[in-house]
Fold this sequence. Notes:
2 copies of one chain form a homodimer.
Chain A: H1 16-23, H2 27-35, H3 44-57, H4 63-70, E1 75-80, H5 87-102, E2 106-111, H6 121-125, E3 129-132, H7 138-146, E4 152-153, H8 166-181, E5 186-192, H9 198-215, E6 218-225, H10 232-241, E7 246-249, H11 252-264, E8 274-276, H12 282-286, E9 293-296, H13 298-313, E10 327-330
Parallel strand pairs in A: 1-2, 1-3, 3-4, 5-6, 5-7, 7-8
Antiparallel strand pairs in A: 9-10
Helix pairs in contact in A: 1-2, 1-3, 5-13, 8-9
Chain A binds a DNA duplex (30 and 30 nucleotides) through helix 2 and helix 4.
Amino acid sequence: MADRGLKDRNDRRVTAADVAKSAGVSRATVGYVLNNTPGTRISPETRRRVLDEATRLGYRPSAAAQALARGRSKIVLVVLPDWPLELTLRTQLDEAARVLDEAGYAVIVHTDHGSEHAQPLWKLVEPEVVVGLVPFTPAQVRSIRAAGITRIAPNPDLRLDIGAIPAVVAGAQLQVRHLASLGHRALAFASPADPRLADLAAVRRLAAEREAVALGVEVRDARAVDHRDEALPSVLHAWLSAGITGVVAFNDDVAGTVVGTAVRAKILVPQDLAVVGHDNTPMASYFAPTLSSVGIDSVGFGRWMAQQALNLAEGRPSTDEFPGPTAFLIERESTSPAR
Amino acid sequence: MADRGLKDRNDRRVTAADVAKSAGVSRATVGYVLNNTPGTRISPETRRRVLDEATRLGYRPSAAAQALARGRSKIVLVVLPDWPLELTLRTQLDEAARVLDEAGYAVIVHTDHGSEHAQPLWKLVEPEVVVGLVPFTPAQVRSIRAAGITRIAPNPDLRLDIGAIPAVVAGAQLQVRHLASLGHRALAFASPADPRLADLAAVRRLAAEREAVALGVEVRDARAVDHRDEALPSVLHAWLSAGITGVVAFNDDVAGTVVGTAVRAKILVPQDLAVVGHDNTPMASYFAPTLSSVGIDSVGFGRWMAQQALNLAEGRPSTDEFPGPTAFLIERESTSPAR
DNA sequence: CAGTTCTGCTTGTGCGCGCAACCTCGGCAA
DNA sequence: TTGCCGAGGTTGCGCGCACAAGCAGAACTG
């Protein structure tokens, strides 16, 4: 009757054996009942007795023992790059977690800060699948493989280039296309100051430059902009002098920095300088002027990611293809046709 | 010599027994060497042989088996409320993870979305400690306890009120104090539209109202502001008509929404309406006008959180007190003395 | 030289569970 | 009566490790 029932009088945990003894059956029967093991035949009456006894005693299976005996853990580890978490990413993760959760997998999200003192997480939790939001570095792949995990996404054998992932670069292409279609011929690319984003920014920048070449426009400058940088106004003026009329911003935060600085420096947006952001954050729609931006179907990507993980976990064949580009441009006040 | 060495020819994992056999010692010796078990005396020569053999075979201990045998897992589970992750929170987590990592604990961060299909994470990974960034609900406490975890922070027995946590409400108090000290007598409280933040916003609002009473000023209105809401401009005008001259915003995002809308509606900020944000995001300093905001010492809080978790994990006594308020107000363009 | 202590190991057991293989017993056809 | 079958279980082993207890031999002790 003890309401706790959580612990034996000896402070030992309640095991399946305890339940078995208490229900007058064998340990195996308890396992069969509790796991609904297919291919076993247990009479309804026994089944009920076991279940009753289990709840009465407050039985809870040991995750460690289960993992050990089963050799699997029903965990999917999602590894994040060390980026400041944007809403887009967060939305994507939430959706992925939801889908995997429904399939009975627990999702552990983990940011790899590189310098781990403790064990890498994949050693500690023995996940069935490790999913990277960005392709793993060879060192990471080695470490994960060394932990005995073979199910890794994206497939490391493809030696995938991050610049080939639509979700990563489609936005930048769209940004350039948008400005080009408005008649802007000379552009600048604005990166964030946060060094953690430098690599990603470089990839997007490259994609933007490639797209510019394809469209016959020019990216005349690319640099990191920091809202704390006193020299930022002169950078903007230098852009104008260089004939630059459009700015491709890494994200809305950067776009806001540029636009905010411009407004303060009496540079007209979009008349003098058109700026397009990325991620379509809420801020883009309340900033003054409102910011044109690229929206990403993060829910869709999250779902796709979860599907990849599930395929891997259950040993199904999975396409190595990425879903089609599902980025779209939202035009607002910060961009207009070039004069 | 097999460079893989990861798997036996039979595809079985390499166990401590394999290493033992290969090194010509017993299984226990291998364990003692690899764990540096105190109180055991192994000759340097044997030690080296074991280590060599272990690396040669690519031995990796099974986390599940270790957890099972040891009865502990060296994992700290941090449970997040279901909030959109702000930079502040993220900074706090990163710091906490860093500290715990250094102590040899792996940190798993987990967002509790409520409707879990899979097992709650605390059942799946059997962490030693579960830390909530916000006090757990009774239901959560029950669930965690039911999973056999006794080390929980914040201490659930205190039945702690979230409104009593300095980190949560100190900012709101500071905001009110700031506006009051500038001579604003009638204020409005602006909450975010995201329903996930409703509870937290309510707590902050209450704290603001209490502080207002204490300072002899009045919070005349409190409502959620949504940047997609067409009626927002008229809300602001209504505020002005009601004599409201200062706005306490839940966070910088909300502050930006208010300020952006005001600017668009030809309401002067800060002359007609002073607005103070919360979190001191980068945006606050590039918005036009720049936003006064409350900064939180998130690194300090993260460190404190980690310390609490460590105390709990290692069974040390831990103070139930919170660290003193370490919020500070950054004054920028969006606030000025009342006329 | 018997007795004691210390060193450097080894053997054995238990952690809690999953699952293959095996048992028992009643029903039923030959 | 024997033989077979299927329902409803049970016994036993293995997962990989930690750790208590034991044990041989060397090194001291008196």
